[in-house]
Amino acid sequence: MTDSLPGAHMREELNSQPRMWATAADLKAEQGLLPASGARIAVVGCGTSWFMAQSYAALRESSGQGETDAYAASEAFIDRGYDAVVALTRSGTTTEVLELVDRIKGRIPTIGVIGDPESPLVSLVDEAVLLPFADEKSVVQTRFATTALALFRASLGENLDGAIADAEAVLAEAGDDELRDADQYTFLGRGWTIGLAHEAALKLRESSQSWTEAYPSMDYRHGPIAIAAPGRVTWQFGEAPEGLSGQVEAAGARFEQRAIDPLADLVRLHRTALDRAVSRGLDPDQPRNLTRSVILDA
Q: pLDDT tens digit string along 111-150?
């Protein structure tokens, strides 16, 4: 495979994810730079990074390691007595993140989790957790986002061996044409997997210009289930509410769920997004209207 083939970068990057997660799990010094247990923190990012922040926040707080809020960088309520702010960004050049960190510099300790070690954010934050091995060429993020979340999970004391094995198994599977060619997709999650659901919807939308939505699982029946129909998919990350699969299937839609680590299930979605994009003649490495980093004019 050459770089000239549509989605070549995305394919290489999504296939490397199990190896990236194993590397992140071993980064003990970098994990030690993240806020200590008991600290009250905010986690900020944009787009994909915001959704990973949501997952980290839910995991950290639910494990009893401290109050943790997640914000889109442009909408963050920072002056709430936080002990630290974690800024997650692949490029380290995103305008909203740089502006927020600059605004609180000297008032609130900041930790950047960054893909590009040469970016301006590195010198702006108090501590920089650098993940250059997970940086990407494709505009569409896959491995940087999941590697950052793997790092966060390891820092909270989780063992990632199961997630890595599940991701390897997913990547070895044959593609699913019916799943690839669905008319519409709704992604659902509970707790920390709500962020994964939002990220899955964004990833498929970016890659293949598809109609996608995302909701907390329990909220799906409060209106969104109205669009469930034959040819459409409702994809649950992690455990589903009792009875939901039957209701979706009664509407004629496909209920998609795997008893695997939800982060590995996101890799399965990455594979579906790539296959769908290529089948439609699209290049997810250079998606329509998107760039690697959003840098706003002054």
A: 999 999 999 999 999 999 999 999 999 988 899 999 999 9
Per the structure, the count of domains in the chain is 2
Is residue 107 domain-shared with residue 19, that is, in the same domain?
yes
Range of the domain at 57: 8-155
Q: CB–CB of 138/13 below 8 Å? A: yes
3 state DSSP class of 184: strand
- Among candidate residues 155, 185, 204, the one where a domain is terminated: 155
User: What distance in Å separates the CA atoms of residue 162 and residue 174, rounded to the nearest whole number?
Assistant: 21
175 and 140 co-located in one domain: no
Nearest to 148 by CA among 138, 158, 159, 134: 134
Whole-prediction pTM: 0.94
Q: Looking up tokens 């790092």, which residue turns up?
A: 151
Instruction: Give the DSSP H or E segment for 29.
Output: helix 28-31
Mean pLDDT, residues 155-163 taken together: 98
- Please name the amino acid found at residue 216: P
> How far are the Cα atoms of 17, 18, 112 from residue 22, in angstroms, in the given order?
9, 6, 21
The C-alpha R_g of the chain, in whole angstroms, comes to 19
Contact 132, 117 (CB under 8 A): yes
pLDDT digits (tens, 9 = 90+) for 8-34: 999 999 999 999 999 999 999 999 999
Return the amino acid letter for 186: T
Task: Kindly state the average pLDDT of the residues 25-52.
Answer: 97
